[in-house]
């Protein structure tokens, strides 16, 4: 009975978002309320449970996501992202231009949210297409694959960061595993798969393209790369140091302090303020305005994450978690595959990778200890599943279609299949790492 109620609640969430066109935050709250009532929770405890779920979820994430948005916005507006792109293109040259775009997309995708990175890279893709007279989809898809992988796999992006919090995983370790899995995934879903797409006819819509700034006013190469990759250096460095230092080393507490995700992002924003923003009063004022705009950009993302936290808490306090755990003990399917399947199913139904990942986490997180699986790998398994088969209910599908001026058939053949490959190859990578742990 409990299992049927969980399925019904997920079905209600899907219907509210897709059919009724409810805002996802409202849809999560309504579903949480219905779930609490239908599962027999005392009425006076339902609202407290929802509030606790929202508070617990946002408590560890507001800083990470807001500061991540600030960093990404400044990297984009300062021209650092453009500088990174131009350097990478110069390094790889015409012969390996596709690989240059892939590396550029991955580096830029780490600090930038997907939609920002997408719009930012479109002028570069189109300029390469027309300069070298190459097929647009063949050139553009690999870069967008790397952006998508960074968005779905790597903290501090909202969905992976939220999953890390839900599963009490280690963000630095998740990032390291994510990068290991991301590299072969990008290669297979990007440059290799795009070889089959050379015959797709596309006339990119140049009305979407934005102008580029002159090179002489862009930040230096060192500052651009250093600032964009600073969070990666910090998380990876502190994770490695913590694992190799003696347990009684006085550096361990220091590493834990500066390796905390919120602290990493705070330090990254302070570094970016100094390197890209400028320290004069006028420059600081402009930078602070940029940060204010960045927070507005992620306000709805934070609310959706909060709503997912509410649903997770209701599932926990109504006894769903214990019941589901006992049922799954006897299921022969591997927990990492199960998490991937649930996430992929919700993604295909809803179109939102963030909602798919967070909803799945609400079901799986309370049972993580019972399932005896590495929480870092569960984060990645659900994250890659949430990228499965983007189609007509996903805004990313329509962005790709309109920018590249494709038919729906060709968009499915290129974009949707690329996202499917990312999800499948990503799961294989997770399972391979799990076999060595």
From TrEMBL:
Signal peptide coordinates: none
Keywords tagged on the record: Cell membrane, Membrane, Transmembrane, Transmembrane helix, Transport
InterPro entries in the cross-refs: Glcn_transporter
Compartments where found: Cell membrane
Pfam families assigned to the protein according to its UniProt record, in alphabetical order: GntP_permease
Keyword Transcription regulation listed: no
Transmembrane segments: 26-46, 58-76, 96-129, 136-154, 174-196, 217-242, 262-285, 297-316, 336-363, 375-392, 412-433
Protein name per Swiss-Prot or TrEMBL: Gluconate:H+ symporter
